[in-house]
Amino acid sequence: MDNAYFEVMSKGDLIDRGQLDSFEKNLARYVGTRYAVGLNSGYDALHLSLRAAGIGPGDEVIVPAHTFVATCSAVVNAGATPVLVDVAKDFNIDVDLIEEAVTPRTRGIIPVHLSGWMADMPRVMEIARKHGLVVVEDACQSLGSSIHGRRAGSWGLTGCWSFYPFKILGGYGDGGAITTNDPDVALFARRMRYNGEDRHTGEYHGHGYTCLLDNLQAAFLDVKLRHLPRWIERRKAIAERYRQGLGDLPDLLLPHYDRPGFDHVYQNYTLRSKQGEEFSTYLREQGVEVLTQFRKPYYRHEALKLVDRGFPETEALSREVCSLPMNVEIDDEEVEYVIEVVRSFYGQ
Ligand SMILES: Cc1ncc(COP(=O)(O)O)c(C=O)c1O
Question: pLDDT, tens digit, for every residue of 100-127?
């Protein structure tokens, strides 16, 4: 990492240099797409994907009711209307509810792969084909996960990535990317991230944005990407230890779904506890750092002016959700401590 830093800084290579190019090539290879385009954030990846697909005013886009708000904001800021659909027990969009949300105005769908576990992409793609919908994958939380060996971010028109520091591949600030097999989409994103400019000819091809991935961030991410497979193995080992240590507690729903061919990379180890906030508060009091995303569903924030069509699963899991510590920095002893604390909450 130090080498990457000095290499970039000694030459002042801050914008659009070889490190960005290298990271894009390695990311595309890892995901299994022809192109990757480095951007400023996951939000920008979603927003540019919708624009590249020509989605805008008058169009509807289906999004899950349980996700980070940026999934939905990208739709609104593209000028389209988000139509929310409830999620299933695995926190991802309930594929059995998608078709009833389709109207003559529906143009796209954004399945979100939350916490390292992919939405049911074979079903999503089948529904999209049937109704002629564009699929933009919000893969911001699932780099490395796959279904039958096909990676997240390689199914839809685009895969959208975030390298926000909390992510499985985190930079040292904001970062994002689009992966795609479509040369026109890649070209569109390359121009739009640079205010619409074609960097070779200087021609502006539209009113764009300033949302390029910094070269220094790209250099860091390129180094980290090489370690990702090993880090994912460590995450899986921690998840397995949690399963062994907590699997017998009846009030917990653990994130082990055991669907053949689906590979969970555990960006987050998000469980559900019937005791909700009381459970999370107890863990925090014992020094266990937990995340409770998202206690208040985004559609309940009044300023967003979204339509709540009734999402019982999202409502239930929002009360119960709790993510246990999951990262490659924690050691086995700390994992055992977490298990001990969770068991003690249940008097075990
Ligand atoms: C599911 C999901 N979608 C979109 C985003 C937006 O990414 P960013 O914060 O890089 O804009 C994130 C992460 O923050 C996310 O977790």
Answer: 999 999 999 999 999 999 999 999 999 9
Q: Give the global pTM.
A: 0.98
3-state secondary structure the chain: CHHHHHHHHHHCCCCCCHHHHHHHHHHHHHHCCCEEEEECCHHHHHHHHHHHCCCCCCCEEEEECCCCHHHHHHHHHCCCEEEEECECCCCCECHHHCHHHCCCCEEEECCECHHHCCCCHHHHHHHHHHHCCEEEEECCCCCCCEECCEECCCCCCEEEEECCCCCCCCCCCCCEEEEECCHHHHHHHHHHCECCECCCCCCECCCCCECECCHHHHHHHHHHHHHHHHHHHHHHHHHHHHHHHHCCCCCEECCCCCCCCEECCCCCEEEEECCHHHHHHHHHHCCCCCECCCCCCHHHCHHHCCCCCCCHHHHHHHHHEEEECCCCCCCHHHHHHHHHHHHHHCCC
| Ligand 1 atom nearest to CA at 164 | 10
Q: Pocket of ligand 1, candidates 50, 67, 140, 211: which has the most ligand atoms within 8 Å of its Cβ, to mutate?
A: 140
Average pLDDT, the chain: 97
